[in-house]
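Title: Prediction job returns without error message
Component: structure pipeline
Severity: low
Priority: P3
Assignee: unassigned

Description:
Job completed but the reporter wants confirmation the result is attached to the right record. Sequence as submitted:
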Amino acid sequence: MKLIRKLYDYTLSWAERPQALWALFFLAFIESSFFIIPPDVLLIALCTGKPKRSFIFVAVCTIGSILGGLFGYMIGAFFFASVGQSILNFLHLNSAFILVQEKYTQNAFLAIFAAAFTPIPFKVFTITAGVCKIKLSTFILASFLGRGLRFTIVGSLIYIFGAKIEKLIDKHFNLFTIVFTILLFLGFAAVKYLKH
């Protein structure tokens, strides 16, 4: 919990820097392939600081996430043995990798969209998509719709409700972390349920 809190605080610290927009792009990019802190954290902080620019931040976050997803796809397609497997090992996502492969044989578009929109680790889906050679058009469209919708909802909520949401998250950080973790497990449980 302390490590996650430190990463969260470090991520938020970028909101006050001139390079904040690039930081948001970079965070969205790496989260789609190997990083654990979701870009929503910095997106919320930036939208709160400058509500009128919320949808610019949403666009940057979406583009960064999709390009990062394509990077994850390339890791799976060309460097799985040397890089992709190490990422999955480090994040303890090997069982998820096997499950995602099964989901791709059923409905790749729906699987990618669900992972892009929910707290399910998107990185395991991007890497596995490369391994499974999912059509790039399917991958990009599902990623765009899922991530675009998710970040637009976040940006819209901040645009409407402002700083109240950021203060709420900061005050109840541990609770939000627990809820996020529960949602994560429920996401995987839902994927397993769909298997049957």
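Comment from assignee: result matches the submitted record. The mean pLDDT is 81.
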